[in-house]
Write a structure and sequence with these properties.
With 313 residues, the protein is mostly helical. The protein is built from ten helices and no strands. Helix 3 runs antiparallel to helix 6 and helix 5 packs antiparallel against helix 6. It is flat and about 65 Å long. The two termini are 46 Å apart.
């Protein structure tokens, strides 16, 4: 498949979001070290950034080239690469915070959380590029897609909040194994779940039907909405963690109820249209209000009469 010319604005925006977050993470890593070790960390970080920029120079262009198409394959590659490198740097920042409680002030820890909360969901929305999908023409379909992307962004914030619970407090009562388990569980979900969402969008093609994209809601229901409630509950009850976000607990309860009702409605509609020849009836029924009605001047196609066929022969 030959890709069209890249969208320069999309390439620039993607590069700015990625390199801004990477630059701040590098600054945190350098400032957490003192003396000769600081120079060594600075050199390692610069070499890593140069290698990352070389790869980003090609992948970002490919992502910008496919942004107007129905495919998001290169977007998944870029997301995986970005989260893989970002979380490695974040892990070392987290370990430095544990080793030296005074290495970062409270404001700096909060600023790190704010940076991740803006850049990570923001990059996902940039990679999806809903406004560039010219083949999604109906307003209702775009709003349905936008609401699904909003739930993905909320799930990303949920995972980042669990990770931030590890480095924000000056003092933590969690054991080492629990901290490592929480961090890498969120790490794996940040790598995989957005790629699942992007692959669903890519597999739909130009004839996108948001109500058929059920894989990500099912996975997020189990791995995020249910599991994160259990994680926060264990932290509150067993480890007496006072910084557990009860707001996100409420968000997950609402998400479970909403997704359960969506699954029941989807199952009911599938039962109403069980046969393959009626598979498009649901979408036609939902989009019927967007189809213009024929007026008096509209000529409708008609089959030729038998008399006309005899004359033609």
């Amino acid at each position: 498949m030959v890709l069209p010319p890249p969208d320069k604005r999309h390439v620039c925006l993607t590069t700015i979001v990625i390199m801004t977050s990477m630059a701040f993470m590098d600054a945190y890593l350098v400032e957490q070290n003192q003396g000769p070790r600081k120079i060594g960390v600075c050199i390692i970080v610069l070499v890593g950034d140069v290698c990352f920029l070389i790869v980003l120079r090609y992948v970002a262009v490919w992502v910008g080239a496919e942004v107007r198409t129905a495919r998001r394959g290169y977007a998944m590659i870029l997301w995986f690469l970005y989260i893989f490198v970002l979380e490695i740097k974040l892990y070392f920042v987290f370990q430095n915070c544990k080793a030296d409680k005074k290495s970062l002030e409270t404001v700096a820890r909060k600023a790190l959380t704010l940076l991740l909360s803006v850049c990570v969901p923001g990059l996902y929305l940039v990679l999806v590029a809903l406004d560039s999908m010219e083949y999604v023409r109906t307003f209702r379909k775009k709003e349905d897609m936008r609401s699904r992307l909003f739930w993905v962004a909320l799930d990303l914030l949920d995972l980042l909040d669990i990770q931030a619970n590890l480095w924000e407090p000056q003092r933590t009562g969690l054991p080492i194994w629990a901290e490592g388990l929480m961090f890498f569980y969120c790490y794996i979900l940040l790598l995989i779940l957005p790629c699942v969402s992007l692959s669903e969008i890519s597999m739909q093609g130009e004839h996108m039907s948001p109500q058929k994209m059920m894989l990500y809601p099912v996975l997020s229901l189990v791995t995020i909405n249910v599991v994160t409630i259990l994680i926060r509950g264990v932290n509150m009850v067993l480890f007496q963690d006072s910084r557990v976000s009860t707001i996100f607990v409420g968000k997950n309860v609402v998400a479970i109820a909403t997704k359960a009702s969506t699954f029941l409605e989807y199952r009911r509609q599938v039962k109403e249209f069980p046969h393959p020849q009626n598979a498009m009836a649901l979408e036609l029924q939902q989009n019927s209000h967007t189809q213009p009605l024929p007026n008096a001047n509209t000529s409708l196609p008609h089959e030729p009469s038998p008399v006309q066929e005899v004359i033609d022969t």
